[in-house]
Amino acid sequence: MNTLLRTAAAALVSVAFASAAEPEISAAELAGRLAAKQQDGSSLIHLKMDNSGAAGGTLQLQIKSRSTPGGAELVYQVLWPKERKGEAVLLRRSENQAATGAVFTPRGGVQGLGPKRIDEPLFGSALSYEDAIENFFAWGQQAIAGMETVDRVPCQILESKPGRGDHSYYTSVRTWVDTRRMVPLRVEKYARSDKPVRWIETTRVANDDNGRPVAANITVHGPGGATTDLDGSKIKHGATFTDEEFTPDGLKNP
Questions:
Q1: Which DSSP helix (H) or strand (E) runs through 166?
Q2: Which residues pair with 176 in a beta bridge?
Q3: Which end of the chain is more exposed for a tag (fewer CB within 10 A), N or C?
Q4: β-strand 41-52 against 227-237: which pairing, if any?
Q5: Is 54:121 a contact under the CB 8 Å cutoff?
Q6: From CA 254, how far away is CA 250, in angstroms rounded?
Q7: Pick from 66, 219, 54, 67: nearest CA to 120
C-alpha cells in the first residue's frame, strides 16, 4: 500500500472511531425527542398481553390514552377472555405529582390506586402500574452513559434519573436508543441496587399509523422471573374521547 492510500485509510479509520466513540445526539436532545413521542395527544391502542411466569395469563386489552407535556391519562380495559372482560385500570400522571389512579373489577367495584400501590403488577403482568404511566425521558436528570450495539444496531445509552419534583419507585433507568429510528431497543430499571428490577427488550419495530417507527413488540422481565410479551402495533392516533371515560365511574363502561 503506497503512502497516499495508507494515509487515506488511516483517516477513514480515525473518522469511523470518532463517530462510534462520540455521542451523535446530546442527552437533553435525545431525552426530549423520546419524551415528545409519549406526549403526542390522544390515541387508541389494541394490545395483546401474554404472561409467562406471571399470574395474568393471556389478555386482549384496549388502551385509551391522552398525553401532553404536562402529564398523561391512560385507561386499560380487558376485552378478552370473557371471564375477565370489563376489568379496567385508570392511571394519571401530572407534572410534579406522583402517579395515581383507580382499578375496577365487575365483582369488586372501583378501588383507589394511590402511591403505595403504584408499584403493584398491572393485570398480574411483569409490568407495574407505574411502568405503564411514567415518562422517565422527561425526568430532570439525563446523561449519555456510552454507546453499545444491540442486535447489530448501534445505540446510545441514555441514563435517566429523577430530578427535583419527579416521583418514581426507580432511582435510575438506562435506555439503549436506536437514534436513527428514535426507538428504545433495551431498557433497564434500577431501584437502589446495581441489578435491574425490570428490563425490557424490543423484539420488533414497526411503523405506526403516522408512519413513525415504534416498538411494536416488547418483552418485559420482572421480579420473581415473571415475563410478559406485549404486541401493541395496532395504534390509532387522533382518537376522540370524553372526559367521563377518564374517571373512576367511566371504567364501568367498556
A1: none
A2: 157, 186
A3: N
A4: antiparallel
A5: yes
A6: 8
A7: 54
Question: Which DSSP string corresponds to 70-135?
Answer: TEEEEEEEEEESGGGTT-EEEEEEETTS--EEEEEETTTEEEEE-GGGTTSBSTTSSSBHHHHH--
Three-state DSSP class for residue 32: helix
Closest CA to 175 of 145, 197, 219, 205: 145
Whole-model pTM over 0.85: yes
The reply to whether omega before 223 is within 30° of 0 (cis) is: no
Q: Rounded CA gap, 29 and 68, in Å?
A: 18
* Degrees to nearest 5, angle at CA 230 with 124 and 72: 80
The residue count of the chain comes to 254
Spatial contact of 67 and 41, defined as CB atoms under 8 Å apart? yes
Dist. CA 194–CA 106, nearest whole Å = 41
Which residues are 216's β-sheet partners? none
Q: List residues bridging with 228 in a β-sheet.
A: 51, 220
What does the longest C-alpha to C-alpha distance in the chain come to? 81
Q: Identify the pLDDT of residue 54.
A: 58
Distance CA 153, CA 151 (A): 5
Question: In 3-state terms, what secondary structure has residue 165?
Answer: coil
Q: Which DSSP symbol is given to 186?
A: E
